[in-house]
Design goal:
This protein has 265 residues and is an alpha/beta fold. The chain contains ten helices and eight strands. It has one domain: Rossmann fold (3-Layer(aba) Sandwich), CATH 3.40.50. Helices cover 39% and strands 22% of the residues. Strands 1, 2, 3, 4, 5, 6, 7 and 8 form an eight-stranded mixed β-sheet that branches. The structure holds S-adenosylmethionine (SAM).
């Protein structure tokens, strides 16, 4: 914990990203991955498999990963060998990721807020207004493959925490979250190239085999039912407490357009 605190202090980042918790969250994901490596292994392998399936049969000029994070679920070596250009998009890139991709000359990092609302949320919540989520697909239009890499359900979380802390009620906050999710799905739907979606669609708090609570991380938004399904044991006990396990029900859809409209989760 102390090591994570120091790391947070030392990493330079825009103020709104630090204050809203984006850097802390990236540090926490890395730390949890180190503690839960065995429990995460199947999930990370399946994500990489879905991305490699998505890369088959298309022009291999440019791939863009949305939510590249710590590259835990991204087959970066294979993508760098397959595609002419690899663009890794995240709201913030950790120093270790910059170092890791430096030798890969065709890999580029872009620090972009894919919702377009984070900075506005930071500022507007202070003034008392919630900004709408914006989706601009234009900057992604020349990618042969765009991967939404376990980012969909994460997009509203820190903006929601921020506005909740500023006194917004549950109803307003959840409507805001839903708009952010809908806009990401709209953005993916507007892209001309292939789109691969990796996301959780149900969060389970469990006591071993017994599910104690199911949470909808997409706030009612629907995604296609087709796709590979698996469980991500994201926080097996005693990660959160000695009595509960947290797991995500996951889906991996290599070609979103091919399955859009064929049932909804
Ligand atoms: C659960 S992680 C995804 C895992 C990641 N693919 C990996 O392998 O480490 C979610 C990622 O979404 C990023 N993120 C959250 N909100 C974002 C936003 N508005 N724009 C861009 N990236 C965002 C986070 O920084 C984080 O890296």
């Amino acid at each position: 914990m102390l090591a994570e605190w120091f790391k947070h202090q030392l990493i330079p980042a825009p103020r709104h990203l630090k204050d809203m918790g984006y850097v802390k969250e990236l540090i926490a994901i890395g730390a949890r991955h180190r503690r839960c490596q065995d429990a995460w292994a199947d999930h990370l392998g399946l994500c990489k498999k879905v991305i490699l399936d998505a890369a088959k049969g298309i022009k291999p000029d440019k791939v863009t990963i949305l939510g590249s994070g710590l590259l835990l679920d991204i087959p970066i070596d294979a993508l760098s060998k397959t595609f002419g250009e690899v663009v890794l998009v995240d709201i913030f890139h950790m120093p270790e990721i910059k170092k890791c991709v430096k030798p890969m000359k065709n890999v580029r990092l872009e620090a972009i807020d894919v919702t377009g609302v984070v900075e506005a949320t930071f500022e507007h919540a202070l003034e008392g207004a919630l900004p709408p989520a914006k989706a601009d697909a234009g900057w992604l239009a020349d990618s042969d493959l765009v991967v939404s890499a376990n980012i969909l359900s994460q997009l509203p979380l820190l903006p929601m925490d921020w506005v909740k802390d500023k006194g917004y009620g549950e109803e307003k906050t959840e409507a805001f979250a839903r708009r952010i999710i809908d806009h990401h799905l709209e953005l993916l739907g507007a892209l001309p190239g292939r789109v691969c979606l990796l996301t959780e669609f149900e969060r389970q708090i469990a006591d071993g085999d017994e599910v104690l609570q199911e949470i909808d991380p997409l706030f009612g938004a629907r995604i296609p039912a087709s796709g590979l399904k698996w469980i991500w044991n994201i926080a097996p006990r005693p990660e959160i407490t000695r009595h509960i396990d947290l797991r995500f029900r996951m889906t991996g859809i290599p070609d979103l357009r091919a399955v859009t409209g064929k049932g909804k989760n």
